[in-house]
Write a structure and sequence with these properties.
Largest sheet: 5 strands, antiparallel
Number of strands: 5
Oligomer: single chain
Shape: globular
Order of helices and strands: EHEEEEHH
Number of helices: 3
Radius of gyration: 14 Å
Distance between the termini: 15 Å
């Protein structure tokens, strides 16, 4: 896992329903609370995983959250290095966050 400083994140339709109060408690993600929306995120690596040499401090990455209550709608978040990739150079942070991270990761 690594800590990133969030630059942009995307909200899925389920996030929007939950934030607007349309999702009932029984329909909440099985990962439970606290629920932090934002499934795809772009940010700067602040603390890389010491066991993973793929990312360094200052790298701009695209990552997705899968099966965790965490999300990208925060100032900082922790992501799995296996679900992250270097952000494509030709895209801004907002543009990269709008892509499903599964395309990049």
């Amino acid at each position: 896992q690594m800590l990133i400083r969030v630059q942009a994140c995307s909200l899925a339709p389920g996030d929007v329903r939950t934030l607007s109060g349309l999702t009932k408690f029984a329909q909440m993600p099985k990962s439970g609370f606290p629920y932090i929306p934002g499934g795809d995120v772009v940010g700067i690596v602040e603390e890389p995983d010491p066991e993973c040499r793929k990312f360094n401090v200052g790298d701009c990455v695209v990552a997705r959250f899968h099966g965790t209550p965490s999300g990208g709608l925060a100032q900082y978040c922790v992501v799995k290095t296996s679900l992250a990739a270097i952000k494509p150079a030709g895209l801004s942070a907002v543009e990269a966050a709008a892509l499903p991270a599964s395309v990049v990761v």
